[in-house]
Design brief:
TIM Barrel; 354 residues; alpha/beta; globular; two-stranded antiparallel sheet; 18 helices; binds flavin mononucleotide
Length: 354
């Protein structure tokens, strides 16, 4: 059943409009610098996250595995990650625990990306049920550098097979964090992480947050396509298709830990804004999935183009490094400003820093 679900997700995401809402990044503006006094050729976009260095602040979001077709997609994504010197996540490895013949669809990632930063993936609801040795198998399957634990209760609530028992996840994360040899990244999948949730996850032992904010792939929309024969699920999916904390807001909310800004990141100016808000890396999912179906070359050219777009934003703001970009003044307008003010953020600090 899980294997079928994973391939259905992949097919729906590749073929249908599954994006929804706004990231809030449209309300974030840089101030153009007419005299930047730097050479674009000297701009350095190398990034640091959990003690590792990356050639660009871009991370291939964990998406797939658990099906024969997913093996080729993961092969393309991991070849791109290896060649570009960036990190990569895999999709939930639950399918491989329940059906060992699916292991290859995940282990291919480490085979094709022997030196990349690879992130294993499992759901918060599964870690409550699994013994430590199963979690260790999940990590070994991709020789992972970190374990992402995904929080996806919106998706669980709108999918036919959903597990909506969210009790005990923090305790399970805490006990894992005390036993594992790799860091834990707590990860949302499209509804974002609040400051309160980030604090609880930090206390439970998470080492980083992948915000998985709203404004990109919407699991409520994905599941609406799958639920077409079930009027209640379809109704739920439609009602909640815009639910969640937009990515820009969630990055600021989660800065108690190192952050991967994911959710609707579609070009280099989005990456620049997310980094300026405080993210260490930016995760990209859906667009890379669609390209990976064709092979690694298109993934490589897309990420190369996004990196060039990022460098132009850095040139035009006079930022030579990502550390400079993190100190670059930002103007926040519109709904994002209103939400951040109501959440108690001091926006004058963002406007006047440097
Ligand atoms: C087809 C597909 C499958 C996904 N599967 C998983 C998963 O198994 N585990 C997980 O943590 N996130 C999963 N995600 C969520 C992504 O990691 C990411 O958080 C989300 O897609 C938002 O980024 P985007 O707007 O760039 O797509 C999946 C996303 C897609 C598109």
């Amino acid at each position: 059943m899980i294997t079928n679900r994973k391939i259905e997700h992949l097919m729906v995401c590749a073929a249908e409009d599954v994006e929804s809402g706004k990231t809030g990044l449209e309300d974030v503006r840089f101030i153009h610098n007419a005299v930047p006094e730097i050479a674009k050729s000297k701009i350095d976009v190398t990034a640091e996250f959990l003690g590792r260095r990356f050639t660009a602040p871009i991370f291939i979001a964990g998406m797939t595995g658990g099906h024969r077709e997913a093996t080729a997609v993961n092969a393309a994504l991991s070849e791109a990650a290896e060649q570009l010197g960036i990190g990569i996540g895999v999709g939930s490895q639950r399918a491989a625990i329940e059906r060992p013949e699916q292991i290859e669809s995940f282990s291919i990632v480490r085979e094709r990306a022997p030196t990349a930063f690879v992130v294993a993936n499992i759901g918060a609801t599964q870690i409550k049920e699994y013994d430590l040795d199963i979690i260790e198998r999940i990590i070994e399957m991709v020789d992972a550098d970190a374990l992402a634990i995904h929080l996806n209760f919106l998706q669980e609530a709108v999918q036919p097979e959903g597990n909506t028992n969210a009790e005990g996840c923090l305790d399970a994360i805490k006990s894992l964090s005390e036993s594992l040899r790799v860091p834990i990244i707590a990860k949302e999948t499209g509804a974002g992480i609040s400051r309160e949730a980030a604090t609880l996850l930090k206390e439970a032992g998470a080492s980083a947050i992948d915000v998985g904010g709203a404004g990109g792939t919407s699991w409520a929309k994905v599941e609406t396509y799958r639920a077409q024969k079930d009027p209640l699920l379809e109704r739920l999916g439609e009602l909640y298709s815009n639910w969640g904390i937009p990515t820009a807001i969630s990055i600021l909310e989660s800065l108690t830990l190192p952050v991967i800004g994911t959710g609707g990141i579609r070009h280099g100016l989005h990456v620049a804004k997310a980094i300026a808000l405080g993210a260490s890396l930016c995760g990209i999912g859906l667009p890379l999935l669609k390209l990976a179906i064709k092979g690694p070359e298109d993934v490589i050219s897309e990420i190369t183009a996004i990196t060039e777009e990022l460098k132009v934003a850095m040139l035009l703001t006079g930022c030579r490094t990502l550390a400079d970009l993190k100190r670059c003044p930002l103007i926040i307008t519109g709904e994002t400003k209103e939400i951040l003010q109501q959440r108690g953020f001091d926006l004058t600090e963002l406007q006047t820093r440097r």
